[in-house]
Design brief:
Layout lengths: L21 H5 L2 H29 L9 H29 L7 H26 L5 H23 L7 H21 L25 H6 L4 H9 L16 H34 L6 H9 L2 H44 L6 H48 L4 H6 L2 H21 L2 H20 L4 H44 L1 H7 L2 H51 L7 H42 L10 E3 L8 E11 L8 E9 L3 E6 L5 H9 L3 E10 L2 E4 L10 H6 L6 H10 L3 H6 L17 H14 L4 E5 L7 H12 L9 E5 L11 E6 L2 E6 L1 H7 L2 H10 L48 H5 L13 H4 L8 H11 L1 H29 L11 H45 L4 H6 L2 H43 L4 H45 L1 H6 L3 H50 L6 H31 L1 H5 L29 E8 L9 E8 L11 E2 H5 L7 H10 L3 H5 L8 E2 L8 H15 L3 E5 L7 H14 L4 E5 L12 E5 L2 E6 L1 H7 L2 H8 L4
Helix pairs in contact: 2-4, 2-5, 3-4, 3-6, 5-6, 8-35, 9-10, 9-11, 9-12, 11-12, 11-19, 11-38, 12-14, 12-37, 14-19, 14-35, 15-19, 16-18, 16-34, 18-19, 18-32, 19-38, 22-24, 30-32, 31-32, 31-34, 31-38, 32-34, 34-38, 35-37, 35-38, 37-38, 41-43, 45-46
C-alpha cells in the first residue's frame, strides 16, 4: 500500500498543452503511484482463482503448521490490521468533515480485500501441500517494488511532510511486505501424508524454494558432482510417479482406447448410412471407411487429453514472456530518449536501466520455464507412446508382423516419436510468429510512419526466394538420406557377412561400392550445405535490406525526417525480433508437417491387426492321463483374413502324455499347424482347445540379450537343481561349465556369442524348464548333429526324457525318430493326409511311405521352393549347425564330415562371451567413456580439415565480423549527424556506405559459412575412409568377436555426427564467438567503464561452461546407452513376440520395458534440467551486462552521444544471446567431437597382410588345379586359448570331393563383380532349379533383395548361393552346411547338381547330415580338434569307428 500527502490532481499532472518526452509522462510520480496501488491487486485477483482451481485438482498432502507458516500468518494479520487502520482513519476524517480524495478510501480498501485473499491462499496452500508458492512470490514482489519506487520519489520530493500518519503507515507496510517476500523465498516442511511414496533418491526440485526453481539452482548439486567426478546411476534422481511409465502409459492407453472406440462407432454409423443410401454393404468397405475417418484423429485426441493442461500452462508463460520481449524495445526507446534530453533527472535513467534489466530477465525466466515445461511434456509423451507401441508389439498378428519389419518398429520409437514430440516446441510458432510480425510492424509504424510499409514490401519480396531455397534444400536432403540409407544397408550387410566377403576376395569390390555411394551421399550433402549457406545469408540480408530501405526512404524521400539514435537502434532491435519470427515460422511449419507424418505412421501401426485372443480355448487346469489335451475340430486357418487358407479341414485330437510327430514335405503346413495351436493364425472356421500351460520352441531359435540363467528361467523362479538337470538333458552343461561366468554369462545380442545349435538347445531348455503341460516343438533337432540330436531326443523329448508324461507335438525332418513317436501326423498341401502309429502307417503305404521314399531317392517334385527352417544361422550369416560363431571359441572346426557336437568339442574351445576381454577392440574402447574429450581429438579433426583451410576460414569470419562492426558503428555516426531544417545533409552518403558494408558482410558470411561446411565434408570423408580401412582389413576373428551393432554404430550414428553435427556446431561457435568479440569491442568503445564488468562476466561464463560440459558429456553418454537398450528390447520382443505370448509372459515383459524406459528417462530429465540451468544462468549474467552498460551510459551522459549509447546498449542486448549461444555451441561441439574419438577406435587393431602381393599380381588364374595340403596344421581362436585344431596333416587331390545375400538386385548378388552375361546367369539358375522362381519375381534378375535376403526363403537363399558358386567356375568349392535348410528330397537334388557341375572341382563339404557326404570320395572325421578317421564312406563304415557310430545314430545303418 502506498499513499501520498495529496492525490494525483493538479494542472501539472497531465499537461497536454506542453509537449514533454514520453519518458517523463510514463515515469512521473502519479503514474508510478497508481501502478503501485493497482497492479498487485489486479495480479492476484486474476491469477488467484485459477490458482485455487489448480490446487483443488493437484493436492500433494497436508502441511503441518510450521514456524514458517506461523510467521506468514502473523505478518499477514499485521498487514490486514494496517490496511484496516488506514480505512478507519480515512472514514474518521470524513466523519469529522475533513475533505478526503476518494483514493484515500479506495486504495486501502482494495489492499485490505487483497491481503485477506492472500491469507486465504496461504491457508489453502498448506492444506494442499504447497511448500513454495510462485503466485504469492510474484504478489509480494509487486507489492514491494512498485510502491517502494513511488515512495522513494515522494521522499526525495518531501511529499510526506504534510501527513505523518501516511508517512509511517507506508513505510511500515513496505517493511511488512518485504518480510513476507523474504518468507516466500523459503520452502516449507514436507507434507505429513504425501500423495506419492518416498523415493530412494528424490529429485531436489521438491525441496527447492521458488527462486531456486525459476533459476534452476536446485540442479547445481548434480552439475557440481558431474564436474568433480564421473556421474553414475546412484547420482540420478528417481522418477516421480507422474513421470513414470506405469502412470503415463496407462493414461494414454485409456484415452487411446476410448477415442478409438468412439471413432470406430462413428465409422459404423457412417457405414450404416451408406448402406441405407446405397442398399449394399460389403466387409471390404470397413477398412476404407475407417481410413476415410482417419487413424490420426483418435491418437491425436488421446495425446492432447493427457497433455493439454501442461501445454496450455506453458503457452501462457511464453505469452507473458513475449510481453516482456516487446517491452525491451520500448524501454530502449525511452532510454535513448532520456539520453537525448539533458534536462531529464538522472534517477529516471537509472530506473529505465533497471526496468530494461528486469524486463529482459523476466522474459528469459518465463521463456525458460516454457522450455522446461515443454521438455518435460516431451519426455512424458515419449514414455507414453513408447509404452503404447511396445504393448502393441506384444499383440500383433502374424500378418502385421510381416507387414512391419523390426527396423520399422525401432524407427517408430526412436525417429517418429522424436519428430512428434519435437513439434511441441514449435507448435505455438504457427500463430505467435504472426502476432510478432504484427507487433513489429506496429512498432515500426510508430517509429518511422509510412516508411514502415516498405518493410512489408521487402519481406514479401524475399519470401519466394526463401521458399525456393528451402524447397531445393529439402530435395537434396532427401537425396542425402536415401544415399545414406543405401550406404548403411550395404555396410551392414558387408560387415555382417565379412567371412564370405573375405573368402571370395571381394573386399576391394565392396569397398569400391561403399565409397561410390558415399561419394554420392557427400555430394548431396555438399549441395544441401551450400543452399543452407544461401538460406542463412538470405535471412541476414533480409534484416539488412529492410533496415537499409527503411532508413533510405525515411531520410531521403520523406521531408523533415532525420535519422536519430532512437529510430536507428530501436528499429534494428525490432527487426531482429521480426527476422527471428520470419525464420521461426518455416521451422514451425516443417516441424508440424513432419510430426503429422510420424503421427500417421504411429497411428497406422497402433491400428494394425492383432491376434484374436479367442482363437484358442485355453484352460489353465492340467489334464489327467488319457484325457484329451489338444483338440482341433474342423479347423481352417489362414495367415491373414484376406489370404487363402493354409490349413484346411484339420481334425486332430491329442490325449495327455502323447508324443505326436508332425511330418510332411516342403510347404505342407507343419509349422502352420503349430501356429494355429498357438492362436497365431487367423481362424476361418472350426475350434481349437488346449488344456494346461503351453511351452513353445520356435523353428528359428529366439534368445534374449541376457545371461544363460535368465534365458532358461524366462521370468520364472530360479530352481538351481532343476536348472542343472535341464541343462544336462539339453547337452548344454559342458558348454555352460566352460563359460567364465557359468550360467551367469551374457550371451550377447541375438545370442551372438553362441553357435546356432547352442541357441537352439537354449531355446529348448527354456521350454523344458517351464514344466508345462503341452509342448509345441518346431523342428528343434534340425540344428544338431546326429550324436547331440539323439542325446537331446532321448534325454528330453523321447519316451524316457524329462518331458515324459507331457503332451509333445514335434515337427521334424529327422525321420529316424518316428518309430519312437506315439502318433504320427502326415501333412500334404495344408491338410492331414493320414495319421496313426508308425507301423500302421508303414503298412498303409500312403503319404508317410512316399515321404520316406523321397528322402531315399531324388525325385522331380521340387522347383527349388524350400521351407523356412531353423538352420542355426549365426548372426553374421553363415549357416552352421554346431560350429562356434562368435568369441574366442567362435571359429569353425575344420570338419570335412560330421563330428561330435559342441557338447564335447565346444567345451574344449571355450565360449564366446559378451565380455570386455573378448571384444574386438580394447576393453576401454567398447565401454562407455568418462570425462571430457581430450584436446588431441580436436587436433585430429583439424588435421583432417587441413591447416591452410582452417586459417582461411578464420580469415573469412574475421572479415565478415569487421564489416558487421563497421556497419553498426557507421549507423551510430549517422544517427548523431546534425539536422538542418529537419534533414541530414549527408544522409545519401551515410546510406550508401551503410549499404556497401552490409553487402560485404553478407558476402563474407556466405563465404565463411560455406567454407566451414565444405571443410566439414572434407574432414568427414577422410575420417570415414580411415574408419573403413581400419575395419575391413582386420582379421576375421575381429568380426567374430566384435558385436555387429558396435561396428554399425560407428558407420551410422558416429559418421552422421561427423557429417552434419560437428560442422554445424563449428559454424555456430565461430559465428557467435566472433559476434562476442564484436559486442565486447562495441561496449568498450562506447562505454569504457563497462569493460570492468565484461572480464568477470566472461570468466563466469567460462566457469559455467566447464561445470556444465563435464556433466553433459556423461549424461549424453548415459542417455544414449539407456535409449539403445530400450530400442534393443523393443526389437528383441518384436522378433520373439510369439514365444512371449506362448509362455504367457506379456506382463513381465511389459514391466521390463517400463523399467528400461524409466531408466532412460532418469537420465533424460537431469540432462534437460541441466540445459535449463545453464541457459538461465547465462542469460541472467548477460542481463547484468545490459544493466552495467546502461548504468555506465547514465553516468557518462554528459559526454556521450545518443548514437554511441544506442550502439553500446543494443550490442549488450545482443551479447546476452551471443554469449549464451557461444557457450552452448562449444558445449555441443565437445559432446559431438566424441564421435571423432569413436571413429578412431579401431586404428590400432591387428590387420591382415596385403590383399594382393606384388609378386602374385600376374598370377590371376591361381589356383591352377585345386590341390589342398595340410602339414601338421593347428589353430586357435584367441592367443590365450588352447589349440582348437591340432596336428592335422593331409593332402586333398584335385577333383575330390555358404546362404547370404546383400542388399541390391538379384543379378548383383549372383555376379558381384559383373563378369557374366544374363544367359550364363539364367543357365546357372536353371541348374539349381530356380529359373521358374526367379522368372516369377517382379523385375526377375533386377528383383531387389532385402537386407539378408529376408524376402526370400532360407532354402532359396542357399540355392542362389550355390548358383553364384556355379558362375565363378572355381577350382575349390567350400560348402558349409549348404543343405541345412532343405528337406531330404531337395537335398538329394542338390547333391546331384554337385556331382555333375563340380566334377572337376575340389569340394570341401561341411555337414551334420551324414546323408549329404555319402557320395564323397573321402570323408574326414574330426573329434576334439584332431583328425581321427579318413577314407571313403564305405571304408569308414567297414571300420565301425566313430563314423559308423554316427551313421547308426542317424539311422543310415
Amino acid at each position: 500500500m502506498a499513499a501520498s500527502a495529496e492525490p494525483c490532481v493538479g494542472q501539472n499532472v497531465w499537461n497536454e498543452t506542453e509537449p514533454e518526452p514520453t519518458a517523463l509522462h510514463l515515469l512521473n510520480v502519479c503514474f508510478l503511484k497508481t501502478a503501485g496501488v493497482w497492479v498487485p491487486p489486479m495480479y492476484l485477483w486474476v491469477l488467484g482463482p485459477i490458482y485455487l482451481l489448480y490446487l483443488h485438482r493437484h493436492g500433494q498432502g497436508y502441511l503441518r503448521m510450521s514456524l514458517l507458516f506461523k510467521a506468514k500468518l502473523v505478518l499477514g494479520l499485521a498487514l490486514i490490521i494496517l490496511c484496516t487502520s488506514s480505512v478507519s482513519v480515512a472514514l474518521w476524517r470524513i466523519q469529522r468533515g475533513t475533505p478526503q480524495a476518494p483514493e484515500f478510501l479506495i486504495h486501502p480498501t482494495v489492499w485490505l480485500t487483497t491481503m485477506s485473499f492472500a491469507m486465504f491462499l496461504i491457508h489453502t496452500e498448506r492444506k494442499k501441500g504447497v511448500r513454495a508458492s510462485g503466485v504469492l512470490f510474484g504478489y509480494w514482489l509487486l507489492c514491494f517494488l512498485l510502491p517502494a519506487t513511488s515512495a522513494a520519489q515522494l521522499t526525495l520530493q518531501r511529499g510526506f511532510r504534510s501527513d505523518p500518519f501516511y508517512h509511517l503507515s507506508t513505510y511500515l507496510c513496505l517493511l511488512l511486505v518485504a518480510a513476507q517476500f523474504v518468507l516466500s523465498c523459503l520452502v516449507d516442511h514436507p507434507p505429513f501424508f504425501p500423495e506419492d511414496p518416498q523415493q530412494p533418491n528424490p529429485c531436489p526440485e521438491a525441496e527447492a524454494s521458488f527462486p531456486s526453481r525459476v533459476t534452476f539452482w536446485w540442479v547445481s548439486g548434480l552439475v557440481w558432482r558431474g564436474y568433480r567426478r564421473t556421474l553414475g546411476p546412484e547420482d540420478l534422481w528417481s522418477l516421480s510417479r507422474e513421470n513414470s511409465s506405469e502412470e503415463l502409459v496407462s493414461q494414454l492407453e485409456r484415452e487411446w482406447t476410448r477415442n478409438r472406440s468412439a471413432a470406430q462407432r462413428r465409422t459404423k454409423v457412417r457405414a450404416a448410412r451408406k448402406k441405407g443410401s446405397r442398399g449394399v454393404e460389403t466387409p471390404e468397405m470397413e477398412p476404407l471407411l475407417e481410413q476415410e475417418g482417419g487413424q490420426r484423429g483418435p491418437l491425436l485426441r488421446a495425446i492432447w487429453q493427457m497433455s493439454s493442461s501442461t501445454f496450455l500452462l506453458a503457452t501462457f508463460a511464453i505469452v507473458i514472456s513475449d510481453v516482456f520481449r516487446f517491452a525491451v524495445p520500448k524501454l530502449l526507446s525511452l532510454f535513448l530518449e532520456f539520453m537525448g534530453n539533458p534536462t531529464t533527472p538522472a534517477w529516471k535513467g537509472y530506473l529505465l536501466a533497471v526496468l530494461m534489466f528486469l524486463s529482459a530477465s523476466l522474459q528469459s525466466l518465463l521463456e525458460q520455464y516454457y522450455m522446461y515445461r515443454v521438455k518435460v511434456l516431451q519426455m512424458r509423451i515419449r514414455t507414453a507412446i513408447t509404452g503404447l507401441v511396445y504393448r502393441k508389439v506384444l499383440v500383433l498378428s502374424s500378418t502385421s508382423r510381416k507387414a512391419s519389419a523390426v527396423g520399422d518398429v525401432v524407427n517408430l520409437v526412436s525417429v517418429d516419436v522424436q519428430r512428434l514430440i519435437d513439434c511441441f516446441i514449435y507448435l505455438n510458432g504457427l500463430w505467435m510468429t504472426i502476432i510478432w510480425m504484427a507487433i513489429c510492424f506496429i512498432y515500426l509504424w510508430q517509429l518511422l510512419g509510412l516508411s514502415a510499409l516498405t518493410a512489408i514490401t521487402v519481406f514479401m519480396s524475399l519470401l519466394p526466394l526463401n521458399f525456393f531455397i528451402t524447397k531445393k534444400r529439402k530435395q537434396h536432403q532427401q537425396e542425402h538420406m536415401t544415399r545414406k540409407d543405401s550406404r548403411a544397408r550395404l555396410t551392414s550387410s558387408v560387415m555382417g557377412n565379412m567371412k564370405m566377403v573375405k573368402s571370395h576376395g571381394w573386399e576391394g569390390a565392396f569397398l569400391e561400392r561403399i565409397l561410390r555411394i558415399r561419394s554420392q551421399e557427400l555430394g548431396a550433402l555438399r549441395t544441401s550445405n551450400l543452399l543452407f549457406s544461401m538460406s542463412l545469408v538470405s535471412f541476414q540480408v533480409s534484416t539488412f535490406l529492410v533496415a537499409l530501405v527503411l532508413f533510405a526512404v525515411h531520410t531521403l524521400v520523406a521531408e523533415e525526417n532525420a535519422m536519430d539514435a532512437e529510430k536507428a537502434f530501436v528499429t534494428l532491435t525490432v527487426l531482429t525480433i521480426l527476422n527471428k519470427a520470419q525464420a521461426f515460422l518455416p521451422f514451425s511449419i516443417n516441424s508440424v508437417i513432419q510430426a503429422r507424418v510420424s503421427l500417421d505412421r504411429l497411428a497406422a501401426f497402433l491400428c494394425l491387426e492383432e491376434v484374436d485372443p479367442g482363437a484358442v480355448n485355453s484352460s489353465p487346469s492340467r489334464c489327467t492321463v488319457g484325457e484329451t489335451c489338444v483338440s482341433v475340430h474342423d479347423g481352417t486357418f489362414a495367415w491373414s483374413r484376406e489370404s487363402t487358407p493354409c490349413l484346411r479341414r484339420i481334425n486332430l485330437t491329442v490325449p495327455q502324455g502323447r508324443l505326436v510327430a508332425v511330418v510332411g514335405a516342403v510347404g505342407a503346413g507343419k509349422s502352420s499347424l503349430l501356429s494355429a495351436l498357438l492362436g497365431e493364425l487367423s481362424k476361418v472356421e472350426g475350434s481349437v482347445s488346449i488344456k494346461g500351460s503351453v511351452a513353445y520352441v520356435p523353428q528359428e531359435a529366439w534368445v534374449q540379450h541376457t545371461s544363460v540363467e535368465e534365458n532358461v528361467c524366462f521370468r520364472q523362479k530360479l530352481d538351481p537343481l532343476w536348472l542343472e538337470r535341464v541343462l544336462e538333458a539339453c547337452a548344454l552343461w559342458p558348454d555352460v561349465s566352460s563359460f567364465p561366468a557359468g550360467v551367469h554369462t551374457k550371451i550377447g545380442e541375438q545370442g551372438m556369442s553362441l553357435s546356432g545349435g547352442q541357441k537352439q538347445r537354449l531355446s529348448l531348455a527354456r521350454a523344458v524348464y517351464r514344466k508345462a503341460a503341452v509342448y509345441l516343438l518346431d523342428d528343434p533337432l534340425a540344428a544338431l548333429d546326429a550324436h547331440v540330436g539323439q542325446h537331446v531326443f532321448n534325454q528330453v523329448i523321447g519316451p524316457s526324457g524329462l518331458l515324459h508324461g507331457t503332451t509333445r507335438i514335434l515337427v521334424t525332418h529327422v525321420l529316424h525318430v518316428l518309430p519312437q513317436a506315439d502318433w504320427i501326423v502326415v501333412l500334404e498341401d495344408g491338410a492331414i493326409a493320414e495319421m496313426g502309429p508308425y507301423q500302421e502307417l508303414l503298412h498303409r503305404k500312403g503319404a508317410l511311405v512316399r515321404l520316406l521314399d523321397a528322402a531315399s531317392h531324388p525325385g522331380d517334385s521340387g522347383d527349388g521352393e524350400t521351407e523356412l527352417m531353423t538352420e542355426a544361422k549365426d548372426p553374421r550369416g553363415s549357416a552352421g549347425c554346431e560350429k562356434r560363431t562368435g568369441g574366442p571359441g567362435s571359429g569353425r572346426s575344420m570338419k570335412l564330415a560330421p563330428g561330435k557336437d559342441g557338447a564335447t568339442s565346444e567345451a574344449q574351445t571355450g565360449a564366446a562371451l559378451d565380455e570386455p576381454e573378448w571384444a574386438g577392440q580394447p576393453a576401454a574402447e567398447d565401454s562407455m567413456r568418462n570425462g571430457r574429450v581430450k584436446a588431441t581429438m580436436y587436433l585430429t579433426y583439424l588435421r583432417a580439415v587441413g591447416a591452410p583451410l582452417c586459417l582461411y576460414v578464420l580469415f573469412l569470419f574475421l572479415c565478415q565480423q569487421v564489416a558487421s562492426f563497421c556497419s553498426s558503428y557507421w549507423l551510430s555516426l549517422w544517427a548523431d549527424d546534425p539536422t538542418v531544417d529537419g534533414r541530414q545533409t549527408q544522409a545519401a552518403l551515410r546510406g550508401s556506405i551503410f549499404g556497401l558494408l552490409g553487402c560485404l558482410q553478407a558476402l563474407g558470411l556466405f563465404a565463411s559459412v560455406a567454407m566451414v561446411l565444405l571443410a566439414g565434408i572434407r574432414a568427414s570423408n577422410l575420417l570415414f575412409r580411415r574408419l573403413l580401412w581400419d575395419v575391413v582389413p582386420s582379421p576375421i576373428g575381429f568380426f567374430e568377436r566384435t558385436p555387429l551393432g558396435n561396428l554399425l554404430n560407428h558407420f551410422s550414428k558416429e559418421t552422421d555426427t561427423v557429417d552434419v553435427d560437428i560442422p554445424d556446431k563449428v559454424r555456430s561457435l565461430l559465428i557467435y564467438g566472433f559476434g562476442l568479440l564484436e559486442a565486447i569491442l562495441a561496449i568498450t568503445v562506447a562505454t569504457p567503464l563497462a569493460a570492468v564488468a565484461i572480464l568477470p562476466l566472461v570468466a563466469l561464463y567460462a566457469g559455467l561452461q566447464s561445470l556444465y560440459a563435464a556433466s553433459l558429456c556423461q549424461l549424453r553418454r548415459l542417455e544414449s546407452a539407456r535409449h539403445s537398450r530400450v530400442c534393443s528390447h523393443v526389437a528383441e520382443t518384436f522378433q520373439g513376440s510369439a514365444v512371449v505370448r506362448a509362455f504367457q509372459a506379456q506382463r513381465p515383459f511389459v514391466a521390463q520395458n517400463d523399467a528400461y524406459v524409466d531408466e532412460s528417462q532418469r537420465v533424460t530429465f537431469p540432462r534437460l534440467v541441466a540445459e535449463r540451468w545453464l541457459v538461465v544462468n547465462l542469460e541472467l549474467l548477460g542481463k547484468v551486462l545490459v544493466l552495467v552498460a546502461a548504468t555506465c551510459a547514465v553516468l557518462s551522459k554528459a559526454h556521450l552521444s545518443a548514437g554511441l549509447v544506442g550502439f553500446s546498449v543494443s550490442a549488450a542486448l545482443q551479447m546476452t544471446q551471443t554469449l549464451q549461444w557461444a557457450v552452448r555451441s562449444w558445449t555441443d561441439l565437445e559432446s559431438s567431437i566424441v564421435s571423432v574419438e569413436r571413429m578412431k577406435d579401431y586404428d590400432r587393431t591387428p590387420k591382415e597382410a596385403p590383399w594382393r602381393l606384388p609378386t602374385c599380381a600376374a598370377q590371376s588364374s591361381w589356383p591352377h588345379s585345386g590341390e589342398i595340403e595340410f602339414r601338421n596344421f593347428g589353430l586357435r581362436y584367441h592367443p590365450e586359448l588352447p589349440l582348437a585344431v591340432r596336428g592335422v596333416s593331409l593332402k586333398i587331390h584335385a577333383g575330390e570331393k555358404d546362404s547370404t545375400l546383400f542388399p541390391g538386385s538379384l543379378r548383383t548378388n549372383l555376379d558381384v563383380l559383373s563378369e557374366h552375361t544374363d544367359e550364363a546367369i539364367w543357365e546357372a539358375l536353371e541348374t539349381v532349379q530356380l529359373r521358374a522362381v526367379v522368372a516369377s519375381l517382379p523385375g526377375q534378375l533386377q528383383y531387389e533383395c532385402a537386407e539378408q535376403g529376408h524376402n526370400l526363403s532360407v532354402g532359396q537363399k542357399q540355392l542362389l548361393c550355390l548358383a553364384r558358386a556355379l558362375l565363378r567356375k572355381t577350382q575349390i568349392l567350400i560348402l558349409d552346411e549348404a543343405t541345412a535348410a532343405v528337406d531330404p528330397g531337395t537335398e538329394l537334388q542338390m547333391q546331384a547338381a554337385l556331382g555333375s557341375w563340380f566334377a572337376r572341382c575340389t569340394v570341401l563339404l561341411i555337414a551334420h547330415r551324414l546323408r549329404s557326404v555319402m557320395d564323397c570320395a573321402r570323408v574326414l572325421v574330426m573329434d576334439k580338434g584332431q583328425l581321427v578317421e579318413s577314407g571313403s564312406p564305405t571304408q569308414l563304415l567297414a571300420q565301425q569307428g566313430l563314423f559308423y557310430r554316427l551313421a547308426q545314430e542317424s539311422g543310415l545303418v
